[in-house]
Amino acid sequence: MAETFDLLLRGGTLVTHNGIGLGDVGVRDGRIAAIGDLASASAAETVEAAGLHVLPGVIDTQVHFREPGNEHKEDLEAGSRGAVLGGVTAVFEMPNTAPLTTNPEALADKLARARDRMWCDHAFYMGGTGENAEQLGELERLPGCCGVKIFMGSSTGNLLTEDDPTLRRILKSINRRCAVHAEDEPRLKERQHLAEEATDPAAHPLWRDPETALRATKRLIALARETGARVHVLHITTAEEMHFLAENKDVASVEATPQHLILAAPDCYTELGTRAQMNPPIRDEGHRQGLWWGLDQGVVDVIGSDHAPHTLEEKAATYPTSPSGMPGVQTLLPIMLDHVAAGRLSLLRLMDLVCAGPARLFGIVGKGRIAVGYDGDFTLVDLAAKRRILDDDMANRSGWTPFHGREVTGWPIATIIRGNVVMREGTLPGRAGGRLLCFGETLPGQ
Description:
Blueprint: E1 4-16, E2 19-28, E3 31-36, E4 42-48, E5 53-56, E6 58-63, H1 76-85, E7 88-93, H2 104-114, E8 121-127, H3 136-139, E9 145-151, H4 164-173, E10 178-181, H5 185-198, H6 204-207, H7 210-227, E11 231-233, H8 239-246, E12 252-256, H9 258-262, H10 267-272, H11 285-296, E13 302-303, H12 312-315, H13 332-341, H14 347-362, E14 378-388, E15 407-417, E16 420-424
Parallel strand pairs: 1-4, 1-5, 6-7, 7-8, 8-9, 9-10, 10-11, 11-12, 12-13
Antiparallel strand pairs: 1-2, 2-3, 5-14, 14-15, 15-16
Helix pairs in contact: 4-7, 7-8, 8-11
């Protein structure tokens, strides 16, 4: 008797841990039930995937969806809609909202806001502060929490933990991997006059210079070794950090972003002005090549978008009063697929960076692999499709992208989450049904 499935992906080129090859995938009750030649099978819904590559669902572990507090820039619905339009099936959302996500009540509020509004699966970071340091070991294990996030340097919002004694308390308290924005706040304060005197965004990497980043990263690694904590160092921007972290992989995992891999100073500031302004900053070509060295050598564990929109009106303010951050969740995959097309990156390496790597590092249950028993999450891509990235196509509430006008080769064609086709050819045929991600470490009974 022929097998029957809820969803059948037929004739696609599967990207799995066994390699890349033609095959079919059957999904039943939201999970992968069979992989291989399923020519005789039937299904309630069949997706003909011939000519497409089938990746495990892409996971973006760093987005700022700005809700609550700044919904005029972005919100959970629009941000997650952009995610699935870009082939992203799950996101980790950051805690520097208003109010800050630093207690169970704030997390519960985000979970309630996300219900029936977020298109992709999701989890939320708990912000680490001096006030909640001793409670974080319990807070990080609440359902819907992906871990703890620390800002060592000031950025958007008011979440800042700059001193070593407080950092030490936090790292001693937690058991899961801690995500960290590593810039040295005392050095930022010492050098702030450089930005104020310049009134030009090209001064951003001068103010927030490589030493500001390296100094914070070295402090963080020393504290991680002292406390036995595992840390995840976000958006690395300097060649020196990449080489330093290569020697400390036993305690640290490493994130890079598409924008730091593709843009370089000074040209990006000439062309984009404050739209290129983010923290840590876009740096020169030497540092960009240092990031690619880290990618090529396996130092980089994941690619995250650091999706952080501001309106164009806000961005038009005179530097340095202009806010730092740019949209990115919808363009993460197209930008990285373009690197695959150019021969800069293999498709298997990209799969590890945006699918398997996030699931492995953070202990996400049932995600990151095309394997029987795992969730039926897939990102279908056309590696030969040539498309132009345009502001008008962006779902983020701020309505722009730093990559406007850029032509890329490689494009997400369909986004499937737990066997549900959420996006196909740029349209969203159903309704928002994202669920909470599950992790290997949660509170007992959850």
